[in-house]
Amino acid sequence: MALKTKIVLSASRRTDIPAFYLTWFMNSLDRGFFDVANPFNQRVAQVPAGPDTVHTIVFWSKDFGRFLAEEIGEELRKRGYGLFFNFTVNSRSPLLEPRVPPLENRLGQLEALSRRFGPQSINWRFDPLCFYRKTGGSVENNLADFSVIARSAHRAGVKRCITSFMDHYPKIQRRLGTVPEFSFIDPSPVEKAAILLKLETRLRPLQIDLTTCCEKDILHRLSAETKIRSSACISNTLLAKLYGGRISLKRDTGQRRGQGCGCQVSVDIGSYRDQPCSHGCLFCYANPRGGAILSTPGNLEPCVILPSQNDTAERVI
Length: 317
Prior knowledge:
Blueprint: E1 5-11, H1 17-20, H2 22-31, E2 33-37, E3 44-48, E4 54-61, H3 65-69, H4 72-79, E5 82-88, H5 103-117, E6 122-129, E7 131-134, E8 139-141, H6 146-156, E9 160-165, H7 170-175, E10 182-184, H8 189-203, E11 209-212, H9 216-219, E12 229-230, H10 236-243, E13 246-247, E14 267-268
Parallel strand pairs: 1-4, 1-13, 1-14, 4-5, 5-6, 6-9, 9-11, 11-12
Antiparallel strand pairs: 2-3, 7-8, 7-10
Helix pairs in contact: 5-6
């Protein structure tokens, strides 16, 4: 008898379900379907949730604390689901990411996920790469703990690091109204290429591959010797190798293929509007409420002009 083609659930590109919406998630599983609103027209569709229909659940999060403490993954495996984890672990920065757990906690979560579910089921996402200036100061970035995180990922057996540069959406610029004397900076393409090569050098001795999310234009500027490639944050080819079975290997037309996204088809079950993420990240493009920033000193109006810089790549780490 032919194997049934199953779907992959993305949980979720639109919000952080493991950190904030696990009760809703598990209740929907028990009910047998997810109610999911289309982010463009808000029409609600029902997405089947049973293991007879779902091949793998891909979780995206910055905080797997509750997921691990309540042994959600173990319960899902018993029910017959494959599991995969896109775990974003960036450097500690109360300005950029004011409400994520302390870095040491997140590194402990990374090790626990690897121990319980295998390092092959984890992508470490260092995303996005951010460059900024506080008025009167030099260019800063969020790479201070990159090597610390990389060594921890290596000890956990994780082999893939996915990164991208911050996208400067207008809604992010509007959010800077809550942050005085601050501006994000967009490095030049030449600078971005140099930064990626430096990161690759840091990861090479740890046997961690560096891939990029939607940075096709930058990849074209790298030398032929580099092993940096475009990523697939959801690779059904990999999921089929991990868990067998039958799933579609088609490219996901709903993602930014033109910018280099290599993801294969999945169904996202999150909602920007109804399940806003509460991490409050300053660079976030997803949260429609903007996410009030908790730890910003002073009350002067921010500078939102993005000046060109010549020393960004030299200050990368």
